[in-house]
Design goal:
The chain is of the alpha+beta class and 488 residues long. The protein contains nine helices and eight strands. The protein has a single domain, classed as Up-down Bundle (Outer membrane efflux proteins (OEP)), CATH 1.20.1600.
Length: 488
């Protein structure tokens, strides 16, 4: 038994020694270095209400950025979307698949231990070929019982498995970034559709009030026409204007239904059974500090995903280059063989072997060299995609900043237009009360005010939509309170 134990120890020592040799072996292929990307020093045309020198310690990504809009219904829709959206569920499954692939690849670094065994009763032929001319064959009937664990271990002397693990890890991290990007895309799409719907609610309200005023105007013109004070042309013009306004209101209802159906799909509910009650809300968006352009590269999940794809592609170069070098697989075995179960685990029944399999391709017609070129070009493609993603990120943020600057100026002008229309309405009421003007002038002034209000609603809706676009372009909201006095 002592000799039996010494043999087991010898086998384990040899396996450990060979494992240490493999771990200290070289790793072929280029080591990955994250490329440097030039970032602009500041955003062009950024208004003071948006500009903020972000502090990374205080400016972490907000996973619930929409709560800054202070709308309970939007909060509920976002929660339902995160729980029930099927596209997001698919992204979660792909992320788990990537983690499983990483675990499977990493397991190649550990020796595989298999347990094999047989139990059979067999008869040996007497007429089989002789193994020795001096010893005649005999026919025997006997049992054979074998219990033989085996070890299979790739020594990975040149780093093929290490590069595969490196690539699988980068791919898993890329999948995680893709999941974050899918989550961001979902939440911003829900918010954008929701506020587009609320803008239409406000526009429809303005148009309905306009229809009411135009009905009064039509009644007035009709009465004047019956008295002969106005022509039939004036009557038809007023009726045509009323009909056109009614058509506009009806078309907005169609658009509203489309946004409602889109939201239902995003939150994982069938469109026929879903509705949002019409409501006029104040379309105001919070100020969003945008930080420095260089911080964008650390925040956007699609940029992070493109960078991880580049790391995975770099690892594949090492995998391809490792194919040029010999492969060594360790195959030690130890087990027991006997003719009965009774003495199977005894020392005389012990059998073992130490061995390794060596392989080296001498000529393959350039296949491995082609694989290296393929992997190298794949890395260059991933690098170009990363740089294009960065450029697109800068473009999207700059577009949002520029549009918000323009819309901020337009909103100020729109407020002036409303004030002018209110002043005109006040003068028209005074003139009508004094008997200096017809009531139609008052109705016309009211209609001008409603037109200005509708334009203001559209501008405010565009500003909210653009802030959501900015949130998406930045990679999420910031948990930093805006400066006092700052407004959108």
């Amino acid at each position: 038994m002592k000799r039996h134990s010494r043999r087991l120890v010898l086998i384990m020592r040899n396996c450990t020694l060979l494992s240490m040799i493999s771990l200290s072996a070289c790793t072929v292929g280029p080591d990955y270095h994250r490329p440097t990307t030039q970032a602009p020093s500041a955003w062009r045309d950024a208004p003071l209400s948006l500009w903020h020198i972000a502090q990374p310690s205080n400016g972490a990504l907000s996973l619930t950025w929409w709560t800054d809009y202070n709308d309970p219904l939007l909060d509920s829709l976002e929660t339902q979307g995160l729980e029930q959206n099927q596209t997001l569920a698919s992204a979660v499954a792909h992320y788990e698949q990537a983690n499983a692939t990483l675990a499977n690849t990493a397991a190649q670094r550990i020796p595989e231990v298999d347990l094999g065994g047989t139990a059979e009763r067999l008869k040996i032929s007497q007429n089989r070929p002789l193994e020795n001319y001096s010893t005649p064959n005999q026919s025997t009937v006997q049992n054979e019982v074998v219990l033989a664990p085996s070890i299979n271990y790739d020594a990975d002397l040149f780093g093929r498995i290490r590069r595969e693990v490196e690539g699988a890890k980068a791919s898993a991290e890329q999948s995680k970034d893709d999941l974050a990007n899918a989550r961001l895309a979902l939440t911003t799409e829900i918010a954008a559709d929701y506020y587009a719907l609320r803008e239409l609610d406000a526009e429809i309200d303005v148009l309905n009030r306009s229809v009411s005023l135009q009905k009064k105007a039509l009644d007035y013109v009709t009465a004047e026409h019956e008295l002969g004070s106005v022509s039939g042309l004036d009557l038809l013009q007023q009726k045509s204007q009323l009909d056109a306004t009614r058509v506009q209101a009806q078309l907005l209802l169609t658009q509203r239904g489309a946004y409602e159906d889109a939201i239902s799909t995003l939150i994982g509910k069938p469109a026929p059974g879903f509705s949002i009650e019409p409501k006029v809300v104040n379309l105001q968006a919070p100020a969003i500090p945008i930080g420095l352009p260089s911080e964008l590269l650390q925040r956007r999940p699609d940029v992070a995903s493109a960078e991880r794809a580049m790391a995975a592609a770099n690892a594949q170069i090492g995998v391809a280059k490792a194919a040029f070098f010999p492969s060594v697989t360790l195959t030690p075995t130890i087990g027991y063989e006997s003719t009965s179960f009774g003495n199977l685990l005894s020392a005389p029944s012990l059998m073992w072997s130490l061995g390794a399999t060596f392989g080296q391709v001498l000529y393959d017609g350039g296949r491995r060299a082609a694989n290296v070129r393929y992997a190298s070009e794949g890395y260059l493609a991933a690098q170009a995609n990363y740089r294009q993603t960065v450029l697109t990120a800068f473009q999207q943020v700059q577009d949002a900043v520029t549009d918000l600057t323009v819309l901020s100026q337009a909103a100020s002008q729109s407020h002036d237009a409303i004030e002018d229309a209110q002043h005109l309405l006040s003068l028209s009421n005074d003139r009508y009360t004094a008997g200096l003007a017809a009531y139609l002038n008052v109705i016309t002034a009211q209609q001008s005010l409603l037109t200005a209000e509708r334009q203001d609603v559209q501008i405010q809706g565009q500003r909210v939509a653009m802030t959501i676009s900015l949130v998406k372009a930045l990679g999420g909201g910031w948990r930093i309170a805006p400066a006092k006095g700052a407004s959108m």
